Amino acid sequence: MVDENLIHKALANPFRREILRWLKTPEEYFLRSRIDLGCGVPLNAIHARSGLSQSTVSAHLATLIDAGLLVSTRVGQWMFVMRNDEVIRAFAEQIRKEI
């Protein structure tokens, strides 16, 4: 189920849109030699690329996850995120039909 209001709120912030762009093609933005992108991108890689504080990045990621735009996966002590393209497509289709 797509919560349109949560998605609009999440997309209202330019940094959150930037995160979604980075995760659309992570191989362009994150060093592949150090990161196995099969599970997504580790949170620390997003933090390092952003130049923002860890707590700020975590808050933005939590908003994207709550909206359903990202999926998080824990592997051992590491947390990885990837885009939820199914939700993104459904939201885009909903916007196309309604507006």
Task: Give the N-to-C terminal Cα separation.
Answer: 19 Å
Helix content: 55-70%
Q: Evaluate the radius of gyration.
A: 14 Å
- What's the number of extended β-strand segments? 3
CATH fold-level label: Arc Repressor Mutant, subunit A
Low-confidence stretches: none
Mean pLDDT: 91
- Total domain units: 1
Q: What class, by secondary structure content?
A: alpha+beta
Q: So how many helices?
A: 6
Corresponding CATH architecture: Orthogonal Bundle
Q: What is the CATH homology-level superfamily? A: Winged helix-like DNA-binding domain superfamily/Winged helix DNA-binding domain
Give the amount of beta strand, in percent.
5-15%
Largest sheet geometry:
3 strands, antiparallel
Give me the strand/helix succession: HHHEHHEEH
Task: Jot down its keywords.
99 residues; 6 helices; three-stranded antiparallel beta sheet; globular; 59% helix; alpha+beta; Arc Repressor Mutant, subunit A
Folded structure, characterized:
The chain has helices spanning 4-11, 14-24, 26-29, 43-50, 54-66, 85-98; strands at 41-42, 70-75, 78-83. The protein has 99 residues and is an alpha+beta fold. It has a single domain, classed as Arc Repressor Mutant, subunit A (Orthogonal Bundle), CATH 1.10.10. It has a 3-stranded antiparallel beta sheet with strand order 1-3-2. A hairpin with a 2-residue loop joins β2 and β3.
Question: What's this entry about, in short?
Answer:
This protein has helices spanning about 5-10, 15-25, 25-30, 45-50, 55-65, 85-99, and strands spanning about 40, 70-75, 80-85. By secondary structure, it is an alpha+beta fold.
